[in-house]
Amino acid sequence: MIQESTGFADFKVGDETFKTWYRIVGDIANKNLRPLVILHGGPGLTHNYMLPHRKIAEESVPVVFFDQLGSGRSSHYRDAPKSFWTPELFMDQLDNLLSHLKISENFDLLGHSWGGFLAAYYAANRPTGGHRHLILANAPASIQLLEQGLNLHLDQFPKEFAKMMRKHEEDNTTSSPEYSKGMAQFIAKHLCSLLPWPQDLQDSFRANGEDPTVSSSMMGPYQFKIVGTLRPYTTINHLNRIKVPTLVIHSQQDEILNIRRLKTPLMSQERSGKIDFKVGPNTYQTWYKIYGDLKNADHRMLAGQYAATRSPPGLKRLVIANSPASMKLTEEGTINLLNRFPDGFVKMIRKHEADGTCESAEYQAATLQFYQKHICTLHPWPEELNTSFGAVAKNPTVYQTMIGPSEFNVIGTLKNWSIVDILYNITNPTLLISSAEDEIQECAVLPFFTQIPKVKWVELQNSTHLAMFEEPERQVGSAVIIPIVLIIGPSHRYFGEILNFLKNVDM
Question: Which GO MF terms does the UniProt record name (predicted)?
């Protein structure tokens, strides 16, 4: 039986000492095993919805989970000023935990959604050496690009629906039942399509609802208009600093915008092909499609920022899952998704946001609709997911401060957040994971792909924002890293892609 342990690590910020709660699955004391550190999304969710990643420990890869400051079992700080909640704070918390666990010289990093943004930022801004792989799952490269993607998703709903959602955000009436109902539609399409949601996912969202301090500070109170402290952040201009092998995971319906819907100079060039690669006596083929000019340097959410700004010596590989590189791009994608809903639905959402009534039952119901479409499509949601969301409901300080009232109305401190300009700092091999119906749309993931030198991008076809619940099938086989490759299709599914990346990708 695989050993599990939990504990707390003291974390000093100025004169204050906070507690970081962590869970270890596997044996991190065995120096022959490189641990995978998990950065959960939000901001303001909890680690619970990421617990399906415990499966990775069955393949002799120890896994480290922890709750970011302001969420879950870690210290909460409801009275903190908005300026307290910054990506740098969470990168410092990560560095502190790595040092506490004595794994800072040799670890892999996986960030999902906001966690992927932070992972890339971290990898590009820390000295290289300690981290070996980077996995970016459903993560945007820029907060502004995230916002663009969200709005592009919104625009694919019926016009009246999109108009209603934006009107609620403009009127600041996102607490209305109409907006809540609209959000529920959007979530069901682009966050998680499972019904019900897995319990771990429900737990994470519940925790964020209980204390939305972080999310509200960093993202703001809205879904399609990011006004929190994260709004200016981008990793795009720093992504080429990431040197470790990187896997990017994306989903066809993720809130991160679909690459094929982008109108960008990158689309001026497109080619595909197959590459032979040998594993022992066997020869396999990797199909790839390349968009844009790979030689043009100008074309090139937590894990991403961490990797891009800290370039930590112990980080070996980076996984960015369903994460954006820019909040502006995220919002664009979310708006596009929201616009697919009926016009009345969108109008209701926008009216609540404009009227400041995002706490209304109507707005919350609409938010849930959106989540059930683009965050998790399972019915009911998994218990772990409910726990994470429930934690936000109990203390929404972080979420509301940094994001705002919802995923498609980002008015928090993260509104202008982007790491697009520092992604070149990520030198680790990086795996990107995304989904087409994810709330993090391809436009917000694309900068990771164009700026990180060693990157693999996998887009899952049957998931939204939480493929670890929707498309978890594990099939460990062979994998290979080439400088830039995009794979669209079922591939090895979520955990298979991660395990192949961690075990078979050379530095």
Answer: peptidase activity
pTM for this predicted structure: 0.64
156 three-class SS = coil
Q: How far apart are CA 148 and CA 169, in angstroms?
A: 15
Q: Which residue has the tokens 């697009």?
A: 420
Instruction: Answer whether 130's CB lies under 8 Å from 312's CB.
Output: yes
pLDDT, tens digit (0-9, with 9 covering 90-100), for 326-371: 999 998 898 889 899 999 999 999 999 889 898 899 998 998 999 9
pLDDT of residue 21: 98
**Residues 195, 377: Cα–Cα separation, whole Å:** 6
Which DSSP string corresponds to 426-454? --S-EEEEEETTSEEEHHHHHHHHHH-SS
**The three-state (H, E, C) secondary structure of 449-473, written as one string:** HHHCCCEEEEEECCCCCCHHHHCCC
Cα maximum dimension of the chain: 65
Residue type (1 letter), 296: N
∠ at Cα 72 (67, 73), nearest 5°?
85
Cα-Cα end-to-end distance for the chain: 31
Structure tokens at 51: 């617990």
- SS3 label, residue 91: helix
b vs e for 366-396, b when ≥16 Cβ sit within 10 Å of the residue's Cβ?
A: bbbbbbbbbbbbbebbbbbbbbbbbbbbebb
Distance CA 37, CA 242 (A): 17
Residue pair 369/181 in contact (Cβ under 8 Å)? The answer is: yes
Residue found under tokens 């990775």: 56
- The CATH code for residues 270-326+418-465 is 3.40.50.1820
For the chain, give every residue range classified as CATH 3.40.50.1820: 4-263+492-505, 270-326+418-465
pLDDT confidence bin for 204, thresholds 50/70/90: confident
Calpha distance 470→403 (Å, rounded)? 25
- Report the distance separating Cα 125 and Cα 216, nearest Å: 26
Residue type, 348: M
| Angle, helix 159-170 to helix 361-374, in steps of 10 degrees | 130
R_g of the chain computed on alpha carbons: 19
Q: Which two tokens stand for residue 422?
A: 């520092």
Note the CATH architecture for domain 4-263+492-505.
Answer: 3-Layer(aba) Sandwich (3.40)
Q: Which two tokens stand for residue 361?
A: 């039952």
